[in-house]
Amino acid sequence: MDELIPLSWANLHRLPRGLRAPSYDRSRLSAGIVHIGLGNFHRAHQAWYTHHLFDAGVNHDWAIIGAGVRQGDATMRKKLLAQDCLTTLIELDPSGKSAEVTGAMIDFLPVEQDNTALIAQMAAPEIRIVSLTVTEGGYFTDPATGGLDTAHPDIRHDATYPDRPRTAFGAMVAALKRRRALGLGPFSGLSCDNLQGNGTVLRRTVVGLARLSDPALADWIAAECSFPNSMVDCIVPATGPHEIALARDFGISDAAPVTHEKFRQWVIQDDFCAGRPDWDRAGAVFSADVHSYETMKIRILNGGHQIICGAGELLGLGTIAATMAHDGIARLFHRITHEEIAPHVAPVPEMTPEAYIEVIARRFANSGIVDTTRRVAFDGFNRHAGFIVPSIRDGLAKGTPVEGLALVSAIWARYCTGQREDGTQIGANDPHWSSLQATAHAALTQPEAWLDQRQIYGDLKHAPRFAEAFYAWSKFLREHGVEAAIAQYCADHDTSLKSTD
């Protein structure tokens, strides 16, 4: 490519021929959504749907204003404002690459410790939806009770100083307090994180936090606001030099391009108290049964990621595609998903769990998507608790196998020791890494120590069928290694694990 075009609104007319750019006049857009936690996934998913509505000539009063509450968000803000909040999306498919520039986002708020600008924007009358991608573990859930963790220092701070909140949820409460006082009415809170019942979780966090400082406000939020559940799905790797180079290959200088797979899915409960965009016109699905869709996705895709990433990391396989190219790990994925997960997943319109497994296997095997095993393994503390443990519990309750899921748990414990099988070190990769690593080392000789982590496993230590399989696999891994353990599990179904001891 002879000339690189710096990405900006003024340069859109200079983009290379054939590269799709916004057809709408962004100066005529007005904000309707504030999105908190504006990273790659949001720009490849929710913002993409909104952009395509704008391109169709509709819903121009639903543009997105970005926001964040972490220091890393300030870095993203600087990059995006420098290019007028435009994003180059690069679709990576085995059949080839394509790119488009999207422009549904029109501003990015300052990232401040007391969230003054964020509160003011969410309190503005034109804002009717506040959406979030703050990760599965970002909702301050007490693992012991499933409710709000009122002992967390940030929650205690926001309850004590509700006008100077640290958290996104405290900012939402402060904005809703201001809206109620001004008679502006509520907004809808839309979680786009991989959580079962994510809207229900968001409601619990916001209402629970409000109740700590202003019970009357909490009652108003509970009665007036809506928190629709949603299921989101698109594999979106992190951005690094490789992704920036891909944008350059298309002739664009973009400091924060996003790569993604061809597949997208968004299923949303149609429960919005202040209106919504017509996202269904861009391919989203509004359904009263989000639960079935999210169960299929969380158990098979997100659970499938956890099945393969730990083994891949321990064997030095850097990407998800590389793990699926490993015959043993691919067989591990197929057997566990078919035998230990699919029996507890209901079909959805036009898709059975078995067919969905094959769709996911093809998506994972897409070598064009440079999705690292390290990224997928991040925050296993919350991901195993949310994506793997529910299938274990269903298997125990219904009498179906759990041996493979016990092996996955044992592999994760071995991963958390921080050392691959070739002796290289695994860097800290979890908000709870220090405690996980200490427990993993203790579990090398006392595997029951791993299951003592009640925040993850609850009472599963006292479920003999799972616990005994976990202990046996822990011993086998210590003596024979990951590849041998996978081969043993994937061997004849009648082979007894104990026969190899």
UniProtKB/TrEMBL annotation:
Pfam families: Mannitol_dh, Mannitol_dh_C. Keywords: Oxidoreductase. Residues 32-280 form the Mannitol dehydrogenase N-terminal domain. Gene3D superfamilies: N-(1-d-carboxylethyl)-l-norvaline Dehydrogenase, domain 2, NAD(P)-binding Rossmann-like Domain. GO terms for molecular function: oxidoreductase activity, acting on the CH-OH group of donors, NAD or NADP as acceptor. Residues 289-470 form the Mannitol dehydrogenase C-terminal domain. SUPFAM superfamilies: 6-phosphogluconate dehydrogenase C-terminal domain-like, NAD(P)-binding Rossmann-fold domains. This is Mannitol 2-dehydrogenase. It comes from Roseinatronobacter monicus.
